[in-house]
C-alpha cells in the first residue's frame, strides 16, 4: 500500500478520535445512570484483567495474576448491569 494512504488513514483515525472524544466529554449527556455503572465496571475490568495480563506478560512473573479473576467479574458485572 502506498505510504500516503497510511497517512490518510492515520489522519482520519486522528480526526475521529478527537472529534468523538470531544463529543463524549462535552456534548453527550447520558440520561440513564446505568451507563455510569457500566462504564465504571468496564473500566475496572480493563484495569484489573487486562492490566494484570500485560503485567504478567511483561514481567514474566505469574504472582501478579491474582487480580485477573476480579477483572473478569467486573466485566461480567458490567455486561449484567445493562440487563437491569
Query: Which residue ranges are poorly predicted, with pLDDT under 50 across at least 5 consecutive positions?
Result: none
- Estimate the global geometry from the Cα principal axes: flat
What structural category arises from helix and sheet content?
mainly alpha
Helical coverage, percent range: over 70%
**Helical run tally:** 3
Strand elements, count = 0
Question: What do these coordinates show?
Answer:
- This protein has helices spanning 3-27, 34-59, 68-81.
- The protein is mostly helical and 84 residues long.
- The chain has two domains: 1-30; 32-84.
- The longest helix has 26 residues, at 34-59.
- The chain is flat, with a radius of gyration of 18 Å.
Outline the fold blueprint.
Layout: H1 3-27, H2 34-59, H3 68-81
What's the short version?
This protein is mainly α and 84 residues long. The protein folds into 2 domains: 30 residues; 53 residues.
Supply database-style keywords:
single chain; 84 residues; mainly alpha
